[in-house]
Write a sequence for this structure.
């Protein structure tokens, strides 16, 4: 039993460290691609502007690679870890964690669709073939729907984790207070992450609407320009938010007189209460968060 528990803890740490490493790698690749594109467009001697033109092999490969690293695969990895934590916080109960799992599946489908549409648009661009104008609207609206699904997955998983802690810890015994820092970090991280996604979703959906349906904006507001900045900020936030959350928990845990760590809740966390005639009893279970 001891070896089984140790293997589970080692496996949990491996999954989290591997996911964070993958997020950093993808974020670094996306940053390098953006830097390369900036140099190609604005790095000509004398300050003249050069626009990357022509269906070169390098341009095609880098464009497709950017579709995978910018606002796509990073979402799936980050939310997969969060949903996995939520699943364990629910005592590995599919019934209790069905909503975040369903939202994560929807998010994954929308990410795949978004990558597919983006690759098709790149194909039309590089092959100089005619692209139906409606593809532009479909791409923006699909990307907006993807951002909404990512935000919904993050918020739902965070809510369920917090609810599990709140519902199955005893306020009188002070056990609920032990998890206050974890709850604060989860809520703050999810709020920052989701708010940025919602803003980008709104901007993308507005850009995808027909001209007759687009809302009027002040002259000094350009949704397209806002979208460009968000496209640069969101990938960095996606790659660093989980790491910052773990770092904050690691900094807090030495100051807490508990076993709370950045990788797991203590074994006295009530994930699956069992009910007897004299009331609920604690079922010790490591949630692997």
């Amino acid at each position: 039993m001891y070896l089984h528990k140790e293997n589970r803890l080692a496996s949990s740490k491996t999954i989290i460290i591997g996911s964070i490493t993958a997020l950093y790698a993808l974020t670094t690749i996306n940053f390098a691609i953006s830097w390369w594109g900036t140099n190609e467009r604005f790095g000509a001697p004398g300050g003249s502007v050069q626009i990357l033109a022509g269906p070169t092999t390098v341009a095609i490969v880098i464009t497709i690679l950017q579709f995978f690293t910018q606002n796509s695969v990073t979402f799936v990895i980050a939310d997969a870890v969060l949903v996995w934590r939520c699943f364990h916080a629910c005592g590995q109960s599919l019934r209790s964690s069905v909503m975040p799992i369903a939202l994560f599946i929807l998010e994954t489908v929308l990410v795949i669709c978004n990558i597919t549409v983006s690759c098709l648009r790149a194909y039309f661009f590089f092959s100089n073939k005619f692209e139906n104008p409606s593809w532009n609207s479909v791409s923006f609206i699909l990307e907006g729907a993807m951002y909404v699904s990512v935000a919904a997955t993050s918020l739902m998983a965070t809510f369920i984790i917090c609810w599990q802690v709140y519902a199955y810890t005893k306020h009188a015994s002070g056990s609920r207070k032990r998890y206050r820092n974890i709850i604060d970090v989860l809520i703050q991280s999810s709020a920052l992450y989701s708010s940025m996604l919602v803003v980008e979703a709104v901007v993308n959906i507005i850009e995808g609407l027909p001209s007759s349906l687009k809302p009027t904006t002040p002259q000094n507001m350009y949704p397209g320009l806002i979208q460009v900045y968000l496209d640069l900020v969101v990938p960095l936030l996606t790659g660093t938010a989980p790491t910052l959350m773990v770092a904050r928990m690691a900094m807090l845990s030495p100051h807490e007189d508990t076993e709370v760590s950045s990788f797991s809740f203590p074994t006295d966390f009530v994930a699956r209460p069992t009910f007897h005639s004299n009331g609920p009893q604690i079922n010790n279970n490591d949630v692997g968060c």
Summary: Residues 2-42 form the longest helix (41 residues). The chain has eight helices and two strands.
